[in-house]
Amino acid sequence: MEHLISVEDLTSYEIRQLLKLASDLKDEWRSGGNKPVLAGRTLGMVFQKPSLRTRVSFEVGMLHLGGRALYLSPQEIQLGQRESVADVARVLGRYVDGIMARVFGHADVQALATYSSVPVINGLSDYVHPCQALSDLFTLHEKRGELEGLTLTYVGDGNNVVHSLLFAASKVGMEIRVSTPPGYEPDDQVVSKATETAHETGGRVVMDADPQSSVSGADVIYTDAWASMGQEDERERRLPIFNPYQVNAHLVALAKPDAVVMHCLPAHRGEEITDEVIDGPQSVILDQAENRMHLQKAVLVSLMAD
Ligand code: CP
Ligand code: NVA
Question: Fewer C-beta within 10 Å: the chain N or C terminus?
C-alpha cells in the first residue's frame, strides 16, 4: 500500500491486515499506550471541508504514535486556487512524511498522490470516504466477528460513504443492500465493480428502492446525511423525497432483532435518523467514531513507519 485513496485499490488481504493491525493498536493503546513508532514523523492535514472526527482522530492518532499532525485549513492552502494541486503536493512532500486530504473533487486527492513524494490518505472526497468504510468494517468485526456472510443495508443517499461501503463490503464477502430514492442511486460504475467483486468473494450487491424490503432480516442498518457537504442548498428540496427513507424504530424493527445501527456522523437527527434509534440500544455510532482513530492508526503505521 503506497497511498490510501479508495478501498477499491485494496485487496481483501490488505483490508484484513489493516483490521488486524487496528485491533492490535487498540489493545496496545488500552493497555498503557502505543509505542512511538512514528516518532519524528509529521502528517500534513489538508482540509477543503469541515470535520470533527477526521481531524481529531488523525491528529490524536499521530500523537499517540509519537508523531505530530499539522492542520491546514481551507483558507490556508486554498487547494488549486492559490497554487496548483500538483505544486501543493510537491512542496508538502518536502516538509511532511504523509498527507491526509479532505477535498471536494476526487481528482484532487488523486493528483496529490500523483505528485507527492510521500503517502497520501483520502480523508473524504465527493466520491469516496475510505477511512470511514474501513473503520466501519473494524467496528462490525468487533461486534459480530466474521464479516463474511453479514448483510448490511444502507438506506439514504447514494453518496461517497455508500460508495466506499460498496467497495469494502464486497471485498470481504458481505451482502450489501442499497436503498435510495430513485434518482439518488450510487454511481453505476461503483455498483458494477462491487457486484463483480462480490461474485468473486461470495458476497452480494442488491439494489432495492424499497427501504422496508431492503432492511428485512439485515444484520446492519446504515445511514448518512441526505445532503452531503457541498450540497447544503439542496437540503430543503431533498427532505420530502428522502422522508420515506428515514431510519426510525419502525424500519429498524424489520431487521434482525440483534441488528446494529450505524451512521458515520454528523447526524441530522429527525431527518435521516430519529433520536430514538440513534440513542437506542442497537446504535453503535460512538464505537464507529472511536474506531476511526484505531483503524487510521493502522493506516498511518502501514504507510509511514519504517
Ligand atoms: N464521519 C466523518 O468523517 O466525520 P467528520 O466529517 O466530522 O470528519
Ligand atoms: N456524506 C457525508 C459524509 C460526512 C462524513 C458528506 O460528504 O458530507
Answer: C
